[in-house]
Amino acid sequence: MKYQNITDVFFDLDHTLWDFDKNSFLALERVFSSHRIELDVSDFVNTYEPINFEYWKRFREERVSKQDLRRGRLIDTFSKFNMSFHIHEIDAMATSYIDELPVDNHLFDGTIEILDYLAEKYALHIITNGFQEVQGLKLKNSGIDKYFKTVTSSEEVGVKKPNPLVFETALEKAKTQNKKSIMIGDTFEADILGAEAVGMETLFYNYRKETIPSKYVLVNSLLEIKTYL
User: Fold this and answer.
1) In the predicted model, what is the mean pLDDT of residues 127-152?
2) What is the mean pLDDT of residues 136-165?
3) What is the DSSP letter of 148?
4) Residues 6+ apart with CB under 8 A from 92
5) How many whole angstroms separate alpha carbon 94 and alpha carbon 167?
6) Is the pLDDT of residue 132 over 90?
7) What are the angstrom distances between the C-alpha of 207 and each of 70, 101, 142?
8) Which is nearest to 181 in space by CA: 173, 189, 104, 108?
9) pLDDT at residue number 209
């Protein structure tokens, strides 16, 4: 099955094209080294990832601020290891992490191949809930910024996916229409339900091997996108 009449393809960035987990792990290794944190990074990350995921959910739902997210995910994870730090040190670690995050720029397998394939047929765009000051660096440092006509961040809009205003702003910036556009992303609520609500087509990148309603189209690898576009 091919999607018909599509002119514009919108991607999420983290966990869809940019390998957030791998890059985050490497960033945390450097943060732990520079701040002399005596804790195995692998043990920390295994505990941190679900906590971080939950904080991002709260952030999307406007239940925590950016500062709450950056502080809370560290404080809550360290507490699982019976470790605590002064808030100034937590803030310093949080800042170091944001600085280190775009240093490594591993992409998912197939990213360049699928972008090369799609760029010949469609206008490509990014819609992201990630922090604006970091997302631009990720795109530039990984060498994929050249593929995208527009980048829309939740911070510039003032609300977060799945809020319709994010998608409406992205469509307006791209000078395209909802029925001619498709959203590809890894977060079902934010990317798929959000885009569907404004009339866009959707394609779920099943990064976390989730079970979603059968009416939605999903892919388990980026190169599977060729089947639909």
Assistant:
1) 94
2) 96
3) E
4) 35
5) 29
6) no
7) 23, 20, 20
8) 173
9) 94
Local confidence band at 39 (pLDDT 50, 70, 90 cut-offs) = very high
CA angle 168, 184, 50 (to 5 degrees): 105
Q: In 3D, which of 186, 110, 108, 104 has the Cα closest to residue 142?
A: 104
Percentages of the chain per state (helix, strand, coil), in multiples of 5: 55, 15, 35
pLDDT band of residue 1 (cuts 50, 70, 90) is confident
- Tokens 């191949």 belong to which residue? 113
Mean pLDDT within 186-207: 97
Identify the three-state secondary structure at position 125. strand
The answer to whether 8 and 174 are in contact (CB under 8 A) is yes
Predicted pLDDT at 131? 82
Strands of the sheet with 218-219, listed across from one edge? 148-153, 123-128, 8-11, 181-185, 201-205, 218-219
User: Looking at the predicted structure, is the pLDDT value of residue 15 above 90?
Assistant: yes
pLDDT score of 133 more than 90: no
Sign of the CA dihedral running 166, 146, 183, 65? negative
Tokens of 139: 């795109």
Domains belonging to the chain, first-starting first, are: 8-18+106-227 (3.40.50.1000), 20-100 (1.10.150.240)
| Cross-strand partners of 150 | 125
Query: Which of 228, 215, 9, 16 has the alpha carbon at shortest distance from 125?
Result: 9
